[in-house]
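General statements about sequence and structure are easier to judge against a single worked case. No coordinates are needed to read the tokens, only the vocabulary itself. The sequence in question and its structure tokens are set out directly beneath this paragraph.
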Amino acid sequence: MPRSVVILGRPNVGKSTLFNRLAQRKIAIVDDTPGVTRDRKEVLAQIGGHEVLLVDTAGLEEAPPDTVAGRMRASSEAALRAADLVIFVVDVRAGLTPADRAFATWLRRANLPVLLVANKAEGRGGAAAAMETYELGLGDPIAISAEHNEGVGVLHEAVAEALGEAPEDDGEPVEDDPERPLRLAIVGRPNAGKSTLLNALLGEERMITGPEPGLTRDSIAVEWRDATGGRVRLVDTAGMRKKARIEERLEQMSVAATLGALKEAEVVILVVDALLGMDEQDLRIARLAEREGRAVVIAFNKWDAVEDRAAARQKLDDVLTASLAQLRGVPVVTLSAQTGRGLDRLMPAVRATYALWNKRISTGELNRWFEAALTRHPPPAVDGRRVKLRYATMPKARPPTIAVFGTRAEELPEEYRRYLVNAFREAFAMPGVPIRMQMRGTRNPYAEAP
């Protein structure tokens, strides 16, 4: 397994900027607002000739455990326990603070190899300011400017020296594993319980959670194995709010991260607060997932706190039937992420939906269904002219896509296209899976001749 290199420091010293620089791509959200990073973020990166698991953490702050800052610190401490090397970042432009000194003492007691990085050391006074960090007792500072890419090459060399020789292959297939992970996104409104669900699936406090809405601002990627032993790449996203509420630049970036997660995913878990029910914003998210061609499973969370369960479930079914026809039959798993009740049914539902999303139908079987569907309900005439549909093929899955060929097929009304989609879904048992129907007509080349 690649060794873990963890970036630590108090808020707003440039940790995420350095993380993006070392990862060689923009992964973490970067903003001048302190505390943007609240959960640790991981990526495989090449640093100093070593493949490492690079970890960006929340800012270290002295705070009670039951506060957001306290939970952020607990997450950073968990990352530290798994670290092979720590990069401790200070902001020399701001000067050393009591927090910097306190955390330096804490790191010395942790008995881990530490590289002291004096960030924002660009310009004439940068190197001189970096010298002040000797008093932290963490060895020679490495003066850099993560934003301007100054001194980062020296940091690469220091990481290589600190890690020493790369570990020998232990025979376990890590990078050459032929089993590709299922890409799974967790989406939903703020405070629906997405991060609590992720923690429950992983069996650890991987994400910072609490009653405060909007705790997760970035999209956090985690790989794990579910009960079937299959690999899953799980992405927990910042909650999406109504457009009128997206006022701050930071929240706009969070929404962009959520949309990006939808594009990267294969299956989407839409977390719905069972106490509030499914509203227009939940439907909007589901429609976005369908538009991107992703399979959907609904996690009806906080089910243990619902008093009238029959009424809550009936209301959900009514909303889905009336407003989400394009994902007819979408699987719904009632659960409590907090207590773990019902959680054992979630990943089997995800795996089953994923299998349907990948399912291919043979041309012969497809056309037997197609002929029966046309016999049961022939296509209507368009502008008094007959539409003759000839045959259908399935050019691709992921999501299932049907191409229908025939004279003036492209002129078929939307109602008939929906009929074919629903008939296909029912015949081949594909609930909750987007289905694409492409109409390919044949035109008379002389029809428009003068």
Remarks:
- Residues 249-264 form the longest helix (16 residues).
